[in-house]
Specification:
It is a single chain. The chain is an alpha/beta fold. It has one domain. It is 29% helix and 19% strand. The protein contains five helices and eight strands; from the N terminus they run αββαβααββββαβ. The strands form three sheets. A four-stranded mixed sheet has the order 3-4-5-6, with helices on one face. Strands 1-2 form a two-stranded antiparallel sheet. A hairpin with a 4-residue loop joins β4 and β5. It starts with 12 loop residues before the first helix and ends with a strand. Pfam families: DabA. Keywords: Cell membrane, Membrane, Metal-binding, Transport, Zinc. GO terms for molecular function: metal ion binding.
């Protein structure tokens, strides 16, 4: 996504600015797809067929319905509804500092911090000095532990092209 070298930014000032801009935008797009898939009639806008554009803000089903602002089913039917996972290469201590900082004149956490702390996005840290992966869980970073063998798929596996459902997370060999 973004080129970042943590050795050039030991205090994490550049990283804080990058995540403050990128985190909420990516989370907003991801959550729009997530909720439109989970309940397309309430959070999405149903199928495109009966839509009428209304005030360039949203759509209505036919000529008489509530304004619907979500995504149509045809846009989300192929997407697996998962929360955004951000993988950041930096020191764990740097990210802990960023998550603990207050922003602006209010002294409140920024949008990125709130998204992470309230589990709207999953934050993973690859600490290259420790050669470990950490996940943010229950208010702190915990080392990631592989617990199960993941399925292996060949690059030319026909399931990629012939099946319509979601495949399990796996490794492409």
């Amino acid at each position: 996504m973004t080129s970042y070298n943590y050795t050039v930014d030991p205090e994490g000032k550049f990283l804080r600015n990058i995540l403050g801009a990128v985190g909420p935008v990516c989370a907003g797009i991801n959550l729009e797809y997530y909720f439109s898939f989970i309940d397309n009639e309430h959070y999405g806008c149903g199928t495109k067929l009966p839509h009428n554009i209304t005030s360039l803000v949203g759509v209505m089903n036919g000529h008489y319905s509530d304004l619907q602002l979500g995504l149509p089913w045809q846009m989300v039917e192929l997407h697996e509804p998962i929360r955004l996972i951000l993988l950041v290469c930096c020191k764990v201590e740097t990210m802990e500092t960023i998550l603990g900082e207050a922003f602006g004149y209010t002294g409140q956490p920024g949008h990125f911090q709130c998204l992470v702390k309230h589990n709207w996005i999953t934050l993973a840290i690859h600490d290259q000095e420790q050669e470990k992966l950490f996940l943010w869980k229950e208010g702190r970073f915990v080392p990631f532990e592989e617990t199960a063998d993941v399925p292996k798929y060949k690059g030319d596996d026909q399931r990629f092209f012939l099946e319509q459902g979601h495949l399990l997370f796996g490794q492409i060999i």
